[in-house]
Amino acid sequence: MYLDENNLTREESTNISEPVVARNNKQGPALSPILINDIITPCEEQISDINIHDAWKDDELLIFDENISEKEIQSDIESNDEIDNIFVETEDQYYQNYTLLFPTVVSSSILTVLDVRTAQKVQETKYAIPSFPNSAYEAFVHLLTKHNLSDFVANDIISLFNNFHMDSTAILPSNAKAARKLLDSMQIPHILYKKTVIMEYNQKQYILYHRTIYDTIKELLSNEDIFKHCVFDFMPKYLTNINGENERCYGEQYNSEWWGQAQSSISENSKVLSIILYSDATTCDVLGKTSEHPIYLTLGNIPNWRRSKPDAKALLAYLPRIKETNEFKKRKDCSMVKHYLFQRSLEVLIEPIRSGSFDLRTDNGIIWCYPFLSELLGDMPEHHSLTLTYSSPNCNMPCYTCITLRDEFNNPLIDHSTIQLRTPIMMQNVLNNGDATKYSLHNMKNIFWTLPQLNIYQACMPDRMHHLDLGLYKYQVEYTRDLLAEWCGSDGVIEFDDRLAKIPRFSGLKLFKHGLGNIKRFTAEEFRSMMRQLVFVVDGIIIKLHKSNYTTHQADNMDKQLVNLYVNWNQMYIFSRKDEFTESDLEIFKTLIINWAKGFIKLLSPYSPSQMQLPKLHNWMYHVIDAIKEHGAINGFVTETYESLHKKWVKNPYRISNRRDATLQMLNTVRRQNIINYLFQFSKPVGSNVKQNTSVMNGKIFTFELSSFDKFVSSYRNTTTLAPEALEAFNQFLPTLDKFFDLINLAEFITTHLIVSVKCNEIEDYTTYDGLCFGKVLMLCSVKISSFNEAFYLALNIYNITDEQDNNSDSNNNVEEIQNEENVGGRDGNRGRGQDRGQGRARNSSSERDNRE
Hints:
Blueprint (H helix, E strand, L loop, with lengths): L1 E2 L27 E2 L2 E2 L2 E2 L6 E2 L21 H9 L12 H4 L3 E3 L1 E2 L9 E3 L3 H5 L11 H12 L4 H14 L11 H10 L8 E8 L2 E7 L2 H9 L2 H4 L9 E4 L5 E5 L6 H8 L6 E9 L2 E2 L7 E9 L4 H4 L6 E6 L6 H4 L4 H17 L7 E5 L2 E13 L2 H8 L36 H9 L23 H4 L4 H25 L1 H12 L22 H14 L3 H5 L6 H25 L4 E2 H22 L10 H8 L1 H8 L8 H16 L6 H18 L14 E2 L13 H11 L1 E2 L1 H20 L23 E3 L2 E3 L1 E8 L8 E11 L6 E10 L21 E2 L12
Parallel strand pairs: 1-8, 8-17, 13-18, 20-21
Antiparallel strand pairs: 2-7, 3-4, 5-9, 6-9, 9-10, 10-16, 11-12, 12-19, 13-15, 14-15, 15-16, 17-18, 22-23, 24-25, 25-26, 26-27
């Protein structure tokens, strides 16, 4: 079976063209009723076609066929025994007033081939691709969906175009509603959403709106710009340290230990397809009265730098949520109902990957893949729901990764070898032995226990944004203000806010002109701005304003400890943002974490209600290093870009809805955007004015052999308008490269200083810092020579030096070999000899100034 444009066998489809009555899907999977008080409650049909009605037709409602045959009911009863065992408790204890629906998987849903060929290859086949009447129509629909235009604005644009356009064939739709109707009528198999009824509770159905996990993967891999960067092989990476020893390096997920274990568990000729899920509830409106719980999907095969972009994630589903009213919270079964709803929803989503391997059809052939669920991202509440552990920080074992007691959470000196990690087998034994409460575990079987190559307790990644930005740093700032209030009174807090408000404006820096105020309202980006400023704000406050009952020596000592705490934080935080970690780096990182944690606990624990027994603190101290070894650098499982997707896929679609059946309207808006993105792969965007771009060589231009340099330059100049600096770089590239080749046989770097005198009237033309004068970089390039193992990273510079006698400007072009403190470049493996970025070797073309920098 092929997952291509027309031959996809699926459980149901989404019919958008005629939003009148939903059709009963007789081929959908059957549902099993659950016995409640010895009464068999028949279940309604699990999946119906979503007829997402137009958001501008309020009088049209969805009607679902409730007729179920006796054969289907009997089938449901027979399959009940297979799924009753998900709960350990008796059903009479918790489930008295609602019906649980158990969707099962039919054999027709098993995937064998996933077609992710590019648009160009698909066009060569006989499959019909939906299209627009003309290019003007296409451009208008793109504009309509991109900016979420209202009917009034869109209709005015149509009227303006129809009145003044000159091309008789470029006819726009009669109104915006007609354009949306055309878009809704387009049937693209992998952009069809469906709904599954998960549970009935208190006479209300809880519905999962989703598409299959393979359809979501197809959306990502069909993007040529994403697929060309994907890696399907296990690629362990090693670097040589300063002692000449090879060290394991952890950067991408395909460099990590988890990938190696997954690869060893499958056939040698097959590949790993790593699936990453992110779930997090978010509010839809400003008042927070309405919320949705989207879940997004991305792939670990995509490198971190590409995966961090928004288009490398796709919306998989909107999870159902129970509105937690006061009446609901008083019920004994409220907790179990919430966890059941969450777990069963995820089971429906991940069920297709249990079927095993499939063929991935690409432009270059077939790739035999095994899908693995590798990482689950989110905040701690989501992780507790995924692992079915207690979320209260006051329980016996609040950590979802290990079984460390809560009393040890503020101990930074625990021997790592004594920490016992949770495993699926261990937790199953705990459940069978009746010790769930002792281990802070909900008395329910976890759906992730049976997934291959997945330890759900280690797959929940410690996210930097939720753990540090919105977690530990927020605590640090709050407790710092409490410390200042104790040592300096209210004057200390006022001085703190005044200093923060007086910081001058700087590009890219968030300012707090009114102090902090209510710290709970700040975003992660604002907390990151605080990190740049607060180390200077707290310096000297206690010395200046300490109370009389403290001596000057005590105040000076406390002030130093507080400043060191913020310095240690910044060092740890900056180090956590590295793209790669060697074994030595991990030891350094561990030391930085422990040094900060010691000061944090010692200095601020008196102001913590829990005496710093914080789950996020424990998780960061003892589990982040293991997470890097298992899954790669922290940058690979951060959630900043996922949070930004809430605006695109949740908040904006909700705001343009009429609030009636909002989820269906939101899903329809998302589907339109996905259709536009997909169709635009088959044709270039049209209707936009062609603007002349001025390139200043600020990105990668091309890869070429030196022998074809002239041909490349000639072609590039004909297609691009170059800035003067770019033209100068091309003119001086070959001469300065010749000078560099004269230097590559030097054994050592020689560092000297080039002194340039600057006149007062020219001072604005230069950038200086601490007496250093920076020249202008014309071009950055990487030169690979076959006789050397390492590539050379070069910078082509220009120095404009004025002769005081004849006032003639002498432009001296130089080429430098860059070696920076992160050891990104080098020659013959000799790393670390250079100083900061931009320092290295250079030689002037002028014989009078033969300096080596």
